[in-house]
Amino acid sequence: MVINVLNPTFEDRAAPFKYASRMETLSGKKVGFISNGKEGTLVFFTHLNRLLRSHFKVADVIWLTKANYSAPAEASIIEQAQAWDLAITGLGD
After folding, report:
1. CA 25 – CA 42 distance, rounded (Å)
2. Between the CA of residue 26 and those of 3, 40, 57, 87, 93, what are the distances in Å?
3. Fewer Cβ close by (within 10 Å): the C or N end of the chain?
4. What 8-state DSSP symbol labels residue 10?
5. Predicted TM-score of the model (pTM)
6. What gap in Å lies between CA 81 and CA 61, rounded to an integer?
């Protein structure tokens, strides 16, 4: 009997990147939620939406859901996110 052991690690080095600047405030900002579409995200994002609006005075919260929970976000979602000040992604089961 032969047992094959696979190594799932990625061996290439990640390309260098720069972190985004930290925002001074969320007041008046446009925030977008990108959900994977699973049931658990609804409760989390609903609560987060309430907090962002009441405590942090965000101007708008946009909710989008990916078509496939295990795939990257569609190009249309990424395109819409370009207009947001902050994107929050979430998953839930």
Report:
1. 25
2. 53, 25, 7, 12, 28
3. N
4. -
5. 0.77
6. 11
Strand ranges (E), the chain: 30-35, 60-65, 86-90
- In the chain, what are the domain boundaries? 34-90
Q: Rounded to whole angstroms, how far apart are CA atoms 16 and 57? A: 34
Determine the distance from the C-alpha atom of residue 8 to the mean position of all C-alpha atoms in its chain, rounded to a whole number: 24
Task: Give buried/exposed letters for 50-72 (b at 16+ CB in 10 A, else e).
Answer: eebeeeeebeebeebbbeeeeee
Determine the Cα–Cα distance for residues 53 and 30; give it in Å rounded to an integer.
11
Residue 8's pLDDT band (boundaries 50, 70, 90)?
confident
Pair 23, 29: CB distance under 8 Å: yes
SS3 81: helix
What are 43-63's pLDDT values in tens digits? 999 999 999 999 999 999 999
